[in-house]
Write a structure and sequence with these properties.
Elements lengths: L1 E7 L6 E6 L6 E4 H8 L8 H6 L2 H17 L5 E2 L3 E4 L8 E5 L3 H9 L11 E4 L5 E2 L3 E5 L6 E2 L2 E7 L15 E8 L2 E2 H10 L13 E9 L10 E6 L2 E7 L7 H8 L10 E3 L13 H4 L6 E6 L3 E9 L2
Parallel strand pairs: 6-17, 8-14, 9-19
Antiparallel strand pairs: 1-2, 1-5, 1-14, 2-3, 3-4, 6-7, 10-13, 11-12, 11-17, 12-14, 15-16, 15-18, 18-19
Length: 312
């Protein structure tokens, strides 16, 4: 199932639902309309509430996705009639694990962005205020010239975890989505030099394209064997398999849930693969510019698209 948060038409009220892939054009099933038709009262209106409601509502939603396109096709909307929002807009915790791909570590060492390889998972916080949705136009602020792309696999938690063990990690996961962890290298290099760990260059408004959907974990064959790709204006810039990750989601969840409860709707981004612009000899030519269309993908499964525009 492909879970989305969206607005319809010119309305501004966020809704949740499912994207139903179709060769004739994707369709959207709004859960509010399905609940009304089925006589289900008080159905959650946000993705975080939906995930926290547990397995019963997840099973209900999957049944709707399977049955209603035939039983009640009038409920379905064309995908071009909605605006995608980040699948989760209000996570309590969005932790981004850094330095997690061997190929990316080599890039960071060459560019002096790291001095040593961490011995355990490390992370920084991604602010909700920086998130944007699929097909969003991202403003590159004036004074920033080194805007880099970072496609990342994100795990979305489906239930509360405290003291989780490695061998049970996947039982807490609702699904995965994609983050383009847009990074202002201008600011990042300054913050590294000063010892700051806030990462302003990753939390500028709009610099967190997320989505387009949460793919439920039952639709992912093997989270440890996925190709993460990034293309700019149709030209592929990187292709790295998640096998290259140092810390798997089992390591990450066990580490961070030791003392802090991880709640349903919280997210873990698992790091940038190798192949970002900053690691290339011709980096200045590769940094994102106004007009660039960036597509970050879990190859063959889902694609997140954004367009870079200049500040007015």
């Amino acid at each position: 199932m492909r879970l989305i948060t969206f607005t319809r038409g010119k309305l501004s009220t966020p809704e949740i639902g499912a994207r139903i892939p179709n060769v004739a054009g994707d369709r959207i099933l709004p859960f509010a309309d399905a609940a009304k038709l089925q006589g289900v009262k008080d159905f959650p209106v946000t993705m975080r509430e939906f995930l926290r409601a547990g397995d019963t509502l997840m099973t209900q939603a999957k049944y709707w996705v399977q049955s209603l396109p035939k039983a009640a096709p009038e409920l379905l909307m064309p995908a071009d009639e909605i605006t995608y929002l980040p699948p989760i807009t209000d996570a309590e915790k969005f932790l981004c694990v850094g330095k997690n791909y061997r190929t990316h570590l080599e890039e960071l060492k060459r560019t002096n962005l790291i001095k040593e390889i961490p011995q355990e998972p490390t992370s920084f916080i991604k602010l909700n205020s920086c998130l944007s949705g699929h097909n969003a136009k991202i403003v590159r602020p004036k004074g920033i010239s080194r805007l880099d792309y970072e496609p990342e696999l994100v795990f979305v938690m489906g239930k509360r975890a405290l003291g989780a063990k490695k061998d049970e990690a996947m039982s807490y996961v609702a699904g995965v989505t994609i983050l383009n962890d847009l990074t202002c290298r201008d600011l990042q290099l300054r913050e590294v030099a000063s010892g700051s760990r806030f990462w302003t260059g990753k939390n500028i408004p709009g610099f967190g394209p997320l989505g387009p959907e949460i793919i439920t974990i039952d639709e992912i064959p093997d989270v440890y064997d996925l190709w993460m790709t990034c293309s700019v204006n149709g030209q592929e810039r990187m292709r790295v398999n998640t096998k290259d990750q140092i810390w798997k989601i089992s390591d990450i969840l066990e580490h961070f849930s030791r003392f802090i409860p991880i709640e349903a709707g919280d997210m873990f981004s698992t790091g940038a693969p190798g192949g970002v612009a900053v690691g290339k000899e011709n980096a200045e030519d590769l940094y994102l510019k106004p007009g660039d269309v960036v597509e970050c993908s879990i190859d063959g499964i889902s694609t997140l698209r954004t367009t870079i525009i200049d500040e007015a």
